[in-house]
Amino acid sequence: MGFKRKLRETTARNNSLLCVGLDPDRAKMPAGVGIAQFNRAIVDATSDLVCAYKPNLAFYEAEGLEGLRALEETIAHIPPDIPIIGDAKRGDIGNTARMYARALFDVFGFDAVTLNPYLGLDSVEPFIAYTKKGLFLLCRTSNPGARDFQDLEVDGQPFYERVAFKAVDWNVHGNIGLVVGATYVQELARIRQLCPDMPLLIPGVGSQGGDLPQVVKRGTDKSGANAIINTSRAVLYASTGPDFAEAARTAATDLRDSINQHRRPVRRNV
Amino acid sequence: MGFKRKLRETTARNNSLLCVGLDPDRAKMPAGVGIAQFNRAIVDATSDLVCAYKPNLAFYEAEGLEGLRALEETIAHIPPDIPIIGDAKRGDIGNTARMYARALFDVFGFDAVTLNPYLGLDSVEPFIAYTKKGLFLLCRTSNPGARDFQDLEVDGQPFYERVAFKAVDWNVHGNIGLVVGATYVQELARIRQLCPDMPLLIPGVGSQGGDLPQVVKRGTDKSGANAIINTSRAVLYASTGPDFAEAARTAATDLRDSINQHRRPVRRNV
């Protein structure tokens, strides 16, 4: 099943726009619990509450080959009808981008990935060519440094809007989305205006402090959907004790329900 | 030994600005030769001819965990006095960037890495903090898509110059360099002018067709050094038969010597 349909169906089935970022950090995990074991427990506790999972590859690569094996085990454990977004933020020239696309889609088997657009079209094309997969281009990120380059003005427009326009241009197969941080609500509103139908992946609620009601209002489309609102730490480390999975379930339930409170009423018909 | 000193000493010892990109592509490698075996043969055939090696992680990730194991073996095989640049083009928010820095510097043990600057300072800081390591920010890349975003004008200047200025600002520990494609000589000349003392990593000679005399003239600093001129395919696949290592040596020798012909005469004193 393609990414878009998987996302739509899971969103409807779980009545959720919540994505849980699977970013295992040993410094915050309960002692004596391995990465794959930790992720399995988190997935088992939240799989009826999410629209997607999003492992960030950095957390696995930091543990070497063992970490990447745990990522493979995690992917295998996630129910196959829930979409998995590989948060890889890759970006390389055409020849090399093909290798990254193979690694992320064929080897790991992600349903969608995040990409850095700085190298332009030929760095994105090999991913677009996987028409059943999804790709999210970094547009306006959630971190303080986002201002350094993404806000520079080009002909009176911020640079990140140029990324949004290009994404629309390049979206010939309808499989492109954008990453827009929850911590900058005005920018989020503007991007939603420019791309009314595009899926937006929105990290930065929870620990990073994005304003949830505003994020839901500005980030969703006319139907109250098409936004993937990600949180990682606020769910994963809701408790660092042996009750971590239960605490994650409680945190995820609260967050899903808070998101739904602020969605447009049409969601009830989804 | 820190990256800068390793680079300076290897450049002098081998009288070379040539970097060989270790990008093993099964479609082009001799049949029946494994990745680690292929790389070992290439390294053995060229280690007295290069200033550095640069494995691009995409080619290993495309082969899954086996590929990454081959990367580890390759790194272990390269003589420890030759700097290894991990061409990873990573870029993520501060919290996650720390994990990538750990993966690339502590786990893989690269002496330097390439980074995508689009997420701004907090995505680069965890790498800068490894003061003995090197980091090369993507500035003006060698691919056709480079024009899509990198050339957009910001206050009358191309965007990539903003990246160069920020790199200078951020270079408090003297461990930042820039990636500038060989295929755009004017841009290369301009960046060298803006950053007279910064090491430039210059891919795109060989298969990508950069003009070698111009690249050497425009890319080196006043002393005729501080440029790392990378080629991958033109050396790795000089022959795809059983004589591939010998052919790689011949190609690397020719390229090193051609580069040296166009270096400023002061190189003889290095």
Protein model, in words:
The structure is a homodimer of 270-residue chains. Chain A is an alpha/beta fold and 270 residues long. The first copy, chain A, contains twelve helices and ten strands. Chain A is globular, with a radius of gyration of 17 Å. In chain A, the strands form two sheets. In chain A, strands 2-1-10-9-8-5-4-3 form an eight-stranded parallel beta sheet. In chain A, strands 6-7 form a two-stranded antiparallel sheet. Chain A has one domain: Aldolase class I (TIM Barrel), CATH 3.20.20.70. In chain A, helix 10 crosses helix 12. The longest helix of chain A is centred in the C-terminal third of the chain and has 19 residues. The interface between A and B is large, with 55 and 55 residues.
Here the CATH topology of chain A equals TIM Barrel
Assembly type of the shown chains? homodimer
Count of helix runs of chain A: 12
Would you state the CATH class of chain A? Alpha Beta
Helix content estimate of chain A:
40-55%
Strand content of chain A: 15-25%
Biggest chain pair contact, residues each?
A: A-B, 55 and 55 residues
The CATH homologous superfamily name of chain A equals Aldolase class I
Radius of gyration of chain A: 17 Å
**Elements of chain A, N to C (H/E):** HEHEHHEHEHEHEEHEHEHEHH
Strand tally of chain A is 10
Count of discrete domains of chain A: 1
Main sheet characteristics of chain A: 8 strands, parallel
Shape of chain A: globular
Q: How are the strands of the biggest sheet of chain A laid out side by side?
A: 2-1-10-9-8-5-4-3
CATH architecture of chain A: Alpha-Beta Barrel
CA-to-CA gap between the ends of chain A? 19 Å
Q: Report mean pLDDT of chain A, rounded to a whole number.
A: 95
